[in-house]
């Protein structure tokens, strides 16, 4: 038994849930593609570690914001609309914002609440269900593929060591991963994360190490995340219509002002590499959806970071979106407005964001999305996120 109570049997059992979150390590990030009968492209990026949406898109117009973040709200944020400001590490994406190719949905989350475990949160995010007790063993992107006629093994594939859980399931997919000088197995990394999860400082250090490893050079002289993005672009320019990959390093319990910019730089480079690789025509048909398992506490902690929270942020990019806006119902940051008086209150379901994007891109009907792709989801009104 480990110090946080995980036995070997518990680990192996847990690892079976929706194919498990083994892709938490960016070096093991698989990429999956699936050919589909529509002409739009969808790229889903799972941001592992609980991204602090309040730091990425800062509600500087909220009177309570500055008092909650006196140490980590570094200078240089770029004004978006007079109320929200963009973290300076994403300033390279401002031209996309100005062209309507970058947008955000604030205060969204999965139905996951209170336990604040990365593993539960990621499993639920990728399963796309209301809870993990429904016996669901496939991911929501795979369930979407199951609704599409004509997806065959030779046209839907992934390259890599393990499937991405969001694409895990009976529909055929393939995996791919960049070459990397990796000395630890996915199972060992998963176990290390479980052991360290109860210790925020250790877990944050592991997340930072993962990010540094991801940013290290791959076996071909490039950055692994850029190679992933370039490969995705190449496939999406051909027959593939869906790609998914993950980026780690978002667990910022300490020194957030130093850690978060590196993660944001990786995300920014990935998005720009996708755009450059796709070219103007295909980029104009593309939607990128970056989503995370949960947000973080509204107040910074004593270590200059933030702890696991609830309400988070979805990031949209691509020529197919109606960008240049921060969508979602803003709940406010006064103490009485916070979830459990500590987290950004979630006012929207991030699964609905994905469902409406899929609805607009593919024409899949609402009943299928609410009953089979995201079982039990109520999509609500169309937020009109697509151009």
Automatic annotation (TrEMBL):
InterPro entries: DUF1501, TAT_signal, TAT_signal_bac_arc. It holds the Pfam family DUF1501. Coiled coil: none annotated. Transmembrane segments: none annotated. It comes from the Bacteria. PROSITE patterns: TAT (PS51318). PANTHER family: BLL7424 PROTEIN, DUF1501 DOMAIN-CONTAINING PROTEIN. This is Twin-arginine translocation pathway signal. It comes from Sulfitobacter alexandrii.
């Amino acid at each position: 038994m480990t110090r946080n109570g995980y036995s070997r049997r518990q680990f192996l059992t847990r690892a079976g849930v929706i194919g498990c979150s083994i892709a938490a390590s960016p070096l093991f990030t698989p990429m999956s593609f699936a050919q589909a009968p529509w002409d739009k492209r969808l790229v889903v990026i799972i941001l592992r570690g609980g991204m602090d949406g309040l730091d990425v898109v800062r509600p500087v117009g909220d009177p309570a914001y500055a008092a909650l973040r006196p140490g980590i709200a570094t200078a240089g944020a770029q004004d978006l609309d007079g109320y929200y400001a963009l973290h300076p590490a994403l300033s390279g994406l401002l031209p996309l914002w100005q062209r309507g190719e970058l947008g955000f949905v604030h205060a969204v989350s999965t139905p996951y609440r209170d336990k604040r475990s990365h593993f539960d949160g990621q499993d639920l995010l990728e399963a796309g269900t209301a809870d993990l007790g429904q016996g669901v063993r496939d991911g929501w992107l795979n369930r979407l593929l199951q609704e599409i006629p004509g997806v065959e093994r030779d046209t839907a594939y992934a390259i890599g060591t393990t499937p991405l859980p969001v694409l895990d399931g009976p529909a055929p997919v393939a995996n791919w991963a960049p070459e990397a000088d990796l000395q630890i197995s996915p199972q060992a990394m998963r176990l290390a994360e479980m052991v360290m999860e109860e210790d925020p400082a250790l877990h944050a250090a592991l997340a930072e190490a993962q990010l540094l490893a991801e940013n290290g050079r791959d076996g071909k002289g490039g950055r692994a995340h850029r190679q992933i993005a370039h490969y995705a672009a190449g496939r999406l320019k051909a027959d593939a219509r869906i790609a998914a990959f993950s980026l780690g390093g978002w667990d910022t319990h300490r020194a957030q002002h130093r850690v978060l910019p590196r993660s944001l730089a990786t995300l920014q480079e990935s998005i720009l590499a996708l755009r450059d690789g796709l070219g103007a025509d295909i980029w104009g048909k593309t939607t990128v959806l970056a989503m995370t398992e949960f947000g973080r506490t509204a107040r910074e902690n004593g270590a200059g970071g933030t702890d696991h929270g609830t309400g988070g942020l979805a990031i949209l990019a691509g020529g197919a979106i109606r960008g240049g806006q921060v969508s979602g119902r803003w709940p406010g940051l006064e103490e009485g407005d916070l979830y459990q008086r500590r987290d950004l209150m979630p006012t929207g379901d991030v699964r609905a964001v994905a469902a409406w994007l899929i609805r607009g891109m593919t024409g899949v009907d609402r009943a299928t999305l609410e009953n089979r792709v995201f079982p039990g989801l109520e999509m609500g009104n169309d937020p009109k996120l697509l151009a």
